[in-house]
Amino acid sequence: GSRALVMTATGAYFFRWKDQRLEPLELPRNLFDPQLAWSADEKWLAVSKEATLELYSLADKKVVQSFVGHTGPINDLAFTPDSQHVLSAGVDQTVRVWKIPSAAIRP
Mean pLDDT throughout 55-79? Predict the structure, then answer.
């Protein structure tokens, strides 16, 4: 499907086209230059928030997990093809692999 990120002075909004309608997901207002990754199964959105990675459930429209480990801002994100892990690369010159917890994964 189609996706778009809209950043305004009052917030950031992520939209996707699903079931012939535009579905919004409001992101935290304090995002600055976020990195985004969309899972292949279209269940998850990974968003960088400085040195923290937040995992959003698109079904629940909320953060289900925060991952902390980088010592500086995250500058790239990617999901594995099976959507079970998120990779993050930071300005701290590290690449981290985060497993999506099974409690967050619903059928």
Answer: 89
State yes or no: pLDDT of 107 exceeds 80. no
Give the tokens for residue 45: 């959105």
Distance CA 7, CA 97 (A): 27
CA nearest to 36, candidates 54, 18, 59, 23 = 54
Average pLDDT over residues 86-104: 87
Separation CA 75–CA 2 (nearest Å)? 23
17 or 65: which carries more pLDDT confidence? 65
Residue of 42, 35, 38 lying closest to 7 (CA atoms): 35
State the Cα–Cα distance between residues 89 and 51, nearest whole angstrom: 10
Give the angle 57-58-64 at the CA atoms, nearest 5°.
15
Task: Fill in the DSSP letter of residue 101.
Answer: P
Q: Roughly how many angstroms between the first and final C-alpha of the chain, as a whole number?
A: 20
Q: What is the pLDDT of residue 106?
A: 46
Q: Is 83 left (phi over 0), alpha (psi -120 to 50) or beta?
A: left
